[in-house]
Design the sequence.
DNA sequence: AGGTTCCTGACAATAAGCTGAAAATATAAT
DNA sequence: ATTATATTTTCAGCTTATTGTCAGGAACCT
């Protein structure tokens, strides 16, 4: 998915960019409206992440312009807590969702996923990995038709693998996915959760790559 | 199908009108209550799309008037995110469905299709979840044939689940559904209402997914 | 062997959820 | 306007599942 990020705050922009890139999407990051318009005129984007307070004007005007042009590209607004009226205007102007700063990156991921699913006209997608069937909106996993209950953390871990099937994920990557920035983990938590997932989903679903990390989904040397 | 669109926002109105027309329905678009009443008095409509904030009054009053007159014409309310209390009133006043702005056009199409299907043969659309029978127009719920009375908030909560059967909804999603923008809730209100719904509808209707949210409507032909 | 790295059962601390009941609002009735 | 009634919100105590950590052992590599 190709995403345009319009955000003038340096630090935040970087973090978001990294996060999105990590999830395998292509990001273009611009810091003002005029650049955003330039990008939009040359490239098709599947999603727009739009800050409202920008150096050369309000994001709302950009949004209105886009909608007026008949573009249906989904838009998620990023806004500070004290800009409620702006937010409402933004929604009225045709945004699809909003996020109040500061937000968790996981929250951002979830919204992006939700918007893109809706946009793709596929509101109830399922993922199949081996004998597992995973319903992403219902958060239901069945193994050979039998429903398996996962705890929040277990699901979060599984999610990391679902998002990048067949990719080798290091323990620190997985930690980043599970835990908020800064809240460091001291013990072998990831190993423990890998173990718990294996117990619930079946031994063969998760492959250990010694010294490197873990991988799910494709057992053989990989085709896509 | 003949549809009356009551919406005073120029841009949005145009978009909706186009969309509906694209789908082969006849649309009349008016921008205030008085014009709406004029149209309703001369023409039969199969569906009413009703914005709540209108220049010459609240759409709710119009809706009440219609229902009082015994008209069963299905009504879908279009409402902004900061008018949720209005929305609850609207549902109490006899709306069939609502859409929170901004909405996907595909969402709109789906609702329209759903409403027209519901009304295709039977004048009184009902939803069945487990042993519950839910009358969408009258907001009456029967459990094993016994009528259950819900308060506005209880209904609003239930509604969130009805709209997305089987979907896992987080507490914050449910809060978003129940409460207006900015009016933050900082107690365990959702839990309390979940508890009340369970008491009224039966223990098994709502499933807790610890750490993630709640889910309704999976009592079906289950695998164990 | 000896040194890693990983697995997994057990456990205490914690966070999440449930629910009765009081306090605060809103709504209706007189 | 006052009173009565119903609903909504908050609070606090309780119950229980989840979490992070540890420790001993297994698997792996050179």
Sequence:
């Amino acid at each position: 998915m190709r995403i345009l990020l319009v955000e003038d705050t340096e630090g935040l922009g970087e973090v978001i960019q990294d996060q999105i890139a990590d999830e395998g999407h292509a990001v273009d990051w611009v810091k003002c409206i005029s650049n955003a318009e330039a990008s939009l005129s040359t490239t098709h984007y599947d999603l727009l992440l739009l800050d409202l307070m920008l150096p050369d004007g309000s994001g709302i005007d950009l949004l209105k312009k886009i909608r007026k042009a008949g573009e249906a590209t989904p838009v998620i607004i990023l806004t500070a807590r004290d800009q409620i009226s702006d937010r409402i205007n933004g929604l009225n102007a045709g945004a699809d969702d909003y996020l109040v700063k500061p937000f968790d990156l996981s929250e951002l991921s979830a919204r992006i996923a939700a918007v893109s699913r809706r946009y793709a006209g596929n509101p109830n997608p399922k993922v199949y990995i081996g004998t597992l069937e995973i319903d992403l909106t219902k958060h239901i996993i069945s193994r050979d038709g039998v429903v398996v209950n996962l705890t929040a953390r277990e699901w979060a871990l599984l999610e990391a693998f679902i998002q990048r099937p067949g990719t080798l994920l290091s323990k620190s990557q997985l930690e980043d996915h599970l835990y908020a920035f800064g809240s460091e983990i001291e013990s072998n938590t990831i190993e423990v959760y890998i173990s718990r997932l294996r117990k619930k989903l079946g031994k063969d679903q998760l492959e250990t790559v010694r010294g490197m990390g873990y991988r799910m989904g494709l057992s053989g040397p990989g085709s896509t």
Notes: Residues 151-154, 185-189, 192-193, 210-211 of chain B lie near DNA strand D (CB under 10 Å from a C1'). Residues 193 and 199 of chain B are 10 Å apart (CA to CA).
